[in-house]
Amino acid sequence: MKADKVLDAKGLACPMPIVRTKKAMDELTSGQILEIHATDKGAKNDLAAWAKTGGHELLSDTEDAGVLKFWIKKG
Fold first, then answer.
1. What is the CATH number of the domain that holds 60?
2. Which residue range is the domain that position 51 belongs to?
3. Strands, E assignment, the chain
4. Each residue of 12-65: pLDDT tens digit?
5. What was the pLDDT predicted at 1?
6. What CA–CA distance (Å, rounded) separates 53 from 34?
7. Where in the numbering of this chain does the UPF0033 domain appear (predicted)?
């Protein structure tokens, strides 16, 4: 999936992946896609809930070699 911006949040513990995601989202315009890489297992539930409450759309999420990857479309 083609992302407009990639955020590396690997090695960060909660709540930092969400804090960095919010900051990165602020730099995008509506409809653009942010790709997030995280290693904190809690990020899966946290980012899904954050996207929903923020009016964004979690398009996809995968896990590859312990790295969680998310694609969120800005609302």
1. 3.30.110.40
2. 5-73
3. 5-9, 33-38, 57-64, 67-73
4. 998 999 999 999 999 999 999 999 999 999 999 999 999 999 999 999 999 999
5. 86
6. 16
7. 7-31
> d(Cα 20, Cα 22) in Å, to the nearest integer?
5
Catalytic residues: 14
Taking the alpha carbons at both ends of the chain, their separation in whole angstroms is: 17
- Is-contact 58 47, C-beta < 8 A? yes
How many helices (H) does the chain have, and how many strands (E)?
2, 4
Contacts 24+ apart (CB under 8 A), 17-25: 17/43, 17/46, 17/47, 18/43, 18/46, 18/47, 18/50, 21/47, 21/50, 21/72, 22/50, 22/54, 25/54, 25/56, 25/72, 25/74
Q: Which residue is associated with the tokens 């800005």?
A: 74
Which residues, listed in sequence order, are joined to residue 50 by a DSSP beta bridge?
A: none
Tokens of 52: 């929903």
